[in-house]
Design a protein that fits this description.
- With about 280 residues, the chain is of the alpha+beta class.
- The protein has a single domain (about 1-275), classed as Immunoglobulin-like.
- Helix content is about 15%, strand content about 45%.
- β3 (about 40-50) and β4 form a beta hairpin.
């Protein structure tokens, strides 16, 4: 019986570890219950981690975020909530404007025990330069850590939805050039990817789209030399755009003390969600 319980315990530990590692590899985004609301209604939305626009909802916990704001016109104010609220977003729309929700997580770390798992992640996100540098410098292929953080935005139309998406000072950020709720051209939108306030060239973006029948598609594109990309869109569809960059941490810890696993990489994840009516 003792042996059986021990096996069950070890199996549970493996599941928990794999789940934590997998969650890191998934997207993080803000998803309102409706992307279009009346000016006197509430905006209700979830913080989600998952894949293919299906995810686990996280509650309102200030310990989990560095920034959680709402922008209307030229005013930015904190998103307030009750501890543990789920959905995490329950705020008044308050007027006719484009509403931008902004969220930045705290830093997290993930431990890699399997090089193939890390390599698969780099290949999926087209982070080839990181892969080349890792191998070129003979960095450890197992027992190393990566730090990661998420930077999410969501665009909601309130009333007549007037306004434009603008940069809000996130370290990595996606900005839509047109208001999707007022765009004259309904088959394409332009975006700009920023890193530390500057255009990020030649970087992969993932385009997730969900139609009314709940069918989800994933496509990829790359920013040009000016950090811009064109999105082909269609009406009556929800969108989530995602992009990831990988860099070496400022304090590279390849030979840590106290037997800590070396912190070799840092990833920054940007997302923006919106709908095309």
């Amino acid at each position: 019986m003792y042996k059986s319980k021990l096996v069950q315990f070890l199996y549970l530990i493996i599941i928990i570890y794999c789940s934590c590692t997998a969650l890191k590899a998934h997207e993080f985004w803000i998803e309102p219950e409706s992307f279009l609301v009346n000016s006197n209604e509430k905006i209700v939305g979830n913080l989600l981690v998952g894949q293919m626009m299906k995810g686990v909802s996280y509650g309102y916990y200030p310990r989990n975020f560095r920034r959680f704001d709402v922008k209307t016109n030229n005013t930015i104010s904190p998103v307030l909530g009750r501890l543990g609220d789920k959905p995490a977003i329950k705020i008044p729309a308050q007027g006719n404007h484009l509403v931008t929700l902004i969220y930045q997580t705290i830093d997290h770390t993930v431990l890699y025990n399997d090089w193939l798992q890390f390599e698969k992640f780099l290949d999926e996100k087209n982070l080839i330069n990181a892969k080349v540098e890792h191998l070129k410098n003979n960095l450890p292929k197992t027992q190393f850590r990566e730090k990661y953080s998420r930077f999410a935005k969501s665009l909601i139309g309130s009333g007549n939805s007037v306004g434009n998406d603008e940069k809000v000072g996130l370290e990595i950020e996606i900005v839509l050039r047109e208001n999707p709720y007022q765009a004259e051209n309904t088959d394409r939108l332009n975006l700009l990817l920023l890193y530390q306030g500057q255009p990020r060239a030649n970087t992969q973006i993932e385009i997730f789209s969900r139609q009314a029948n709940m069918k989800v598609e994933r496509n990829t594109a790359f920013t040009n030399a000016q950090g811009e990309a064109v999105l082909k869109v269609r009406p009556a569809t929800d969108y989530m755009i995602n992009s990831v960059i990988m860099r070496r941490p400022k304090n590279v810890n390849s030979n840590p003390e106290n037997n800590a696993k070396p912190l070799l990489w840092e990833s920054l994840w940007a997302s923006i969600s919106f709908a095309v009516p």
